Amino acid sequence: MNEDQILVPFFPLSVFLLPGEDIPLQIFEPRYKQLIGEARAEGIRFVIPFVIDSEMQKYGCEVRLKQVVAENSAGRMVIIIESVAVVRITSYIPQLKDKLYAGGRINYLDPPAPVNSTRLKHFVELYNEQYDNHFQSCCKGDPITDYDVLKALNLSSEEKFNFLLMDSTEQRENYLVHQIQFLMMIRKQEQLLGDDFGLN
Question: Whole-model pTM?
Answer without folding.
Answer: 0.86
